[in-house]
Amino acid sequence: MIEITCKKNKYTYNVYHIVKAFFPEEEITQRVDEKQEPLVTLKMSGGSCFSIVDGMTDPGAGREGSTPEDNEQAKKREATRLVYRYLSDLTGRGLAWGILTGVRPTKLIMQKAEEGMDREAIRDFLKREYFVSEEKAYLGYEIACREKALLSRLDWENGFSLYVGIPFCPSVCSYCSFSSSPIDVWSDRVDSYLEALIHEIRALRRMAPGRRPDTVYIGGGTPTTLEAKQLDRLLKAVTESFDTGHLREFTIEAGRPDSITEEKLRVIRSYPVTRISINPQTMQQRTLDLVGRKHTVEDVAQAFSLARKLGFDNINMDLIAGLPGETAADMQDTLKRVEELHPDSLTVHALAIKRAAKFGQEKRKAQTHREITQMLEDAEDSARRMNLLPYYLYRQKNIAGNFENVGYAEVDKAGIYNILIMEEKQTILAAGAGASTKLVLPCRIKTAGGKETNLVRIENVRNITEYISRIDEMIERKGEWLWR
User: Fold this and answer.
1) Residues 6+ apart with CB under 8 A from 472
2) CA pair distance 280, 257, nearest whole angstrom
3) Residues 33-51: what's their mean pLDDT?
4) What is the pLDDT of residues 98-110, one digit of tens each?
5) Which of 390, 425, 424 is nearest to 404 (CA)?
6) Contact at 8 Å (CB) between 316 and 344?
7) Are 379 and 319 in contact, with CB atoms under 8 Å apart?
8) Which are the contacts of 116, defined by CB distance < 8 A and separation ≥ 6?
9) Which residues pair with 346 in a beta bridge?
10) What phi, psi does 475 have (nearest 5°)?
11) Taking 60 as the threshold, does the pLDDT of residue 178 lie above it?
12) What mean pLDDT value characterizes the chain?
């Protein structure tokens, strides 16, 4: 048991995630005590205690032109650094990403590159300020450069991206916390959902006159849980609503092999879809059974081969490192089987167990830091053997070992939408239950809390029944902002 007590609530997030990364299997409690004198106190299970006094200063605080908010941010960063140094000395090891707890490390790296920093300067900055390892600093820089090249091809003046969400799956995986429900529970409401979804798609078309999408991404959930006729109805609505003649990418997450049929793939092939995903997560049958995926390893290979036979030449596969019970040897076997299929892109996730997922409720524990390190290193080696290069990176809350998720792809087959969702440089219009629209405004505005931003998020309700009944309200929310 480790107890974290902070004098101010703003310190709990960073401190908690640093402690959790060093001690992923420990039960950690956190609370705010405005009356305590130390700014942060850690009480360790072995009886040791560490405190940070409230009067500390940061080298960056108090600089000419700095605001009270700047100074407070500097103080928070210093507190995180002190906690990190203490735990690093205590455990005798560091974290791959140091004190960076955000989900978009490449966004920071991209910013520094745009300011004129070169590869070595960015490495030194990340190591000095955030304790990032040299390996991860170089990986982040390589990906940021590749992202920049890909994003330079987009229409920044008139373009946007479109996301369409299908919140149904054959079954819900034990590690999943996304807004998805078993298709058999909703089979009698799917047509009603599609009706509301298509209504929203057509409304987005009216709100975006003269604009055309650079990318379209149909995700979920598992879009291929729709019947072939339903899938055709959806794709027809998308292609009739928007000019798809200049698309850089059109992705459908076929996802679960047990949802894929030849008829559905033929429907998809009849539209300008350029990229699909067939996601095994693992090629170990006992793990598939454990996490609740109702398909076999052979189903994965058969679905992949069928897609290739029908002419799909850009297929992604997702894998998860750190699934309960799996070892580095299991990952090596999975990678060997994936290499035999040779996907055009491979996305490797370090397991993130969230509270909303079944594994989170069961308090399942991820694999050890050393085991996941080996898994991710083996995945990188496997990707390079398939001539797949890293092109995007993101992290999640509660991610195992404080690691990252990396997408690898052949040249010109990288998932552009994946980059856009991370870098937040282009407006993404989103339709569907639980979908989140991100509007990138031409100039910064002040939020109700007083912060300045050029990014506005508009969330659709997650509940499927409410989405259907409140669809006009979802549309009206977007209409208040598009296009300012």
Assistant:
1) none
2) 8
3) 90
4) 998 777 888 899 8
5) 390
6) yes
7) yes
8) none
9) 317, 408
10) -65, -45
11) no
12) 88
Tell me how crowded residue 126 is: count the other CB atoms within 10 A of its CB. Answer: 25
Token couple for 477 = 């929310």
Pick the closest to residue 376 from 123, 96, 132 (CA basis): 96
Amino acid at 59: P
Predicted TM-score (pTM) of the model is: 0.87
pLDDT tens readout for residues 112-168: 998 999 999 999 999 999 999 999 999 999 999 999 899 988 988 889 999 999 999
CATH of range 153-428; options 3.30.470.20, 3.80.30.20, 2.70.70.10, 3.40.50.620:
3.80.30.20
Average pLDDT over residues 406-416: 95
- Which three-class secondary structure state does DSSP give residue 412? coil
Residue type, 451: K
Architecture of the 1-94 domain: 3-Layer(aba) Sandwich (3.40)
Block residue for tokens 């894998």: 319
Edge-to-edge strands, sheet with 2-6: 28-32, 2-6, 40-43, 49-52
CB 81 within 8 Å of CB 66: no
Predicted pLDDT at 400: 62
Distances (CA, A) of 423 to 142, 162, 465: 15, 15, 32
Q: Whole-angstrom Cα distance, residue 290 to residue 136?
A: 32
Least confident of 12-21, 130-139, 315-324, 432-441: 12-21
Minimum mean pLDDT among 60-69, 106-115, 419-428: which range?
60-69
Looking at the DSSP bridge assignments, the partners of residue 6 are: 32, 40
pLDDT of 292 higher than 90: no
CA distances to 116, 130, 272, 390, 442 from 418, in Å: 25, 25, 19, 12, 22
3-state secondary structure 198-231: HHHHHHHHHHCCCCEEEEEEEEECCHHHCCHHHH
Distance CA 220, CA 190 (A): 14
The alpha carbon torsion through 20, 21, 22, 24 (nearest 10 deg) reads 60
In 3-state terms, what secondary structure has residue 384? helix
Q: How far is CA 198 from the centre of its chain?
A: 26
State the Rg of the chain over Cα. Answer: 23
Locate tokens 């908010």: which residue? Answer: 69
- Is residue 56's pLDDT more than 80? no
**In the structure encoding, which two tokens stand for residue 261, read together?**
């049929």
Annotated domain spans of the chain: 1-94, 97-140, 153-428
Two tokens, residue 60: 């960056």
